[in-house]
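Re: [ENG-882] Designed sequences occasionally contain unexpected residues at chain ends

Forwarding the minimal case from QA. Structure tokens:
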């Protein structure tokens, strides 16, 4: 059995009009056996190139685990860098990757409040960035709305 997966940039194989072009966007540049692909995933997980936020408490995460991938070098100080470094620190504090020392439940309990705070900080950073974007252009800040606004005057 063979499988494909991942999203990587490599030179396209097919012309833009070719119906097989989806392969250029959705596949690894090579096909590997399922066994080999799962081994790659296992190694990357143990090396913390893929880090999970179990029981994702973020309302936008719908309670599903959040997976973060460390495929490219992360710029120190960037949001992605802070997320990965913070998660790495917590996982290591609770014994990862040693299966004899790893305290899974305690680790999850430490990740949840930390991740909630990271998401709150991230939303505030994005709000400020958005506000600065519009202010630099001398334009009024767009008004926030929600589905609760539907049907109200001016929201048709």
């Amino acid at each position: 059995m063979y499988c494909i997966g991942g999203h990587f940039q490599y030179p396209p194989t097919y012309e833009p009009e070719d119906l097989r072009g989806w392969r250029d966007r959705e596949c690894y540049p090579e096909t590997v056996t399922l066994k080999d692909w799962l081994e790659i995933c296992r190694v990357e997980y143990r090396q913390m190139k893929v880090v999970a936020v179990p029981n994702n408490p973020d309302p936008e995460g719908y309670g599903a685990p959040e997976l973060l991938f460390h495929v490219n070098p992360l710029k120190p100080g960037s949001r992605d860098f802070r997320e990965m470094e913070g998660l790495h620190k917590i996982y290591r504090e609770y014994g990862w990757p040693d299966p004899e020392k790893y305290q899974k439940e305690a680790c999850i309990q430490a990740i949840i409040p930390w991740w909630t705070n990271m998401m709150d900080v991230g939303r505030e950073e994005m709000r400020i960035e958005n506000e600065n974007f519009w202010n630099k252009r001398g334009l009024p800040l767009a008004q926030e709305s929600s589905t609760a606004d539907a049907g109200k005057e001016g929201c048709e």
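QA comment: On inspection the terminal residues look reasonable. Strands lie at 2-3, 32-33, 50-53, 66-69. Proposing we downgrade this to a documentation issue.
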